[in-house]
């Protein structure tokens, strides 16, 4: 029986599982959206939110705690400078899980794990032909 045993093992030993969690959280902070399996997303959601909470505090101790988990100075700088500032008025719930597809091969449920207030890069739209013609007529 699994009484009082929390967390998923994900078919890995402890060190491999912790390394996987660290890599996924690092990728989430770097890209602000990742696609992974539902089980992995549910496991790292709490870890990612803890890192954002550390970023919101902004102290040297919090930065060192984040560095002990993330281990990439550029990603920790992004976390403390950019990402945490977007959540200053929010007291939790920094991530969302969106079901996307079933993975071909093993039919695992895939989800997109993303930050709620993420920066979306918008590509400039090309001018349509009618806009170009109307601009030419104005001249």
TrEMBL record:
Q: Which GO terms describe its cellular component?
A: ribosome
User: Which Pfam family, an example, fits this chain?
Assistant: Ribosomal_L17
| Alphabetical UniProt keywords | Ribonucleoprotein, Ribosomal protein
Q: Which HAMAP family match?
A: Ribosomal_bL17 (MF_01368)
Quaternary structure and partners: Part of the 50S ribosomal subunit. Contacts protein L32.
- Which family is this sequence assigned to? Belongs to the bacterial ribosomal protein bL17 family.
Protein name in UniProt: Large ribosomal subunit protein bL17
């Amino acid at each position: 029986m699994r009484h009082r045993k929390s967390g998923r093992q994900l078919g890995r030993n402890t060190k491999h599982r912790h390394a996987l969690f660290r890599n996924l959280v690092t990728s989430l902070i770097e890209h602000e959206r990742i696609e992974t399996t539902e089980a992995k997303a549910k496991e790292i959601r709490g870890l990612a939110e803890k890192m954002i909470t550390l970023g919101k505090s902004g102290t040297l101790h919090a930065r060192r705690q984040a560095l002990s988990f993330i281990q990439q100075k550029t990603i920790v700088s992004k976390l403390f400078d950019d990402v945490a500032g977007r959540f200053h008025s929010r007291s939790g719930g920094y991530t969302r899980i969106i079901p996307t597809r079933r993975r071909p091969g093993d039919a695992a449920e895939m989800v997109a794990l993303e930050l709620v207030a993420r920066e979306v890069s918008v590509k400039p739209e090309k001018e349509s032909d009618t806009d170009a013609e109307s601009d030419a007529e104005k001249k």
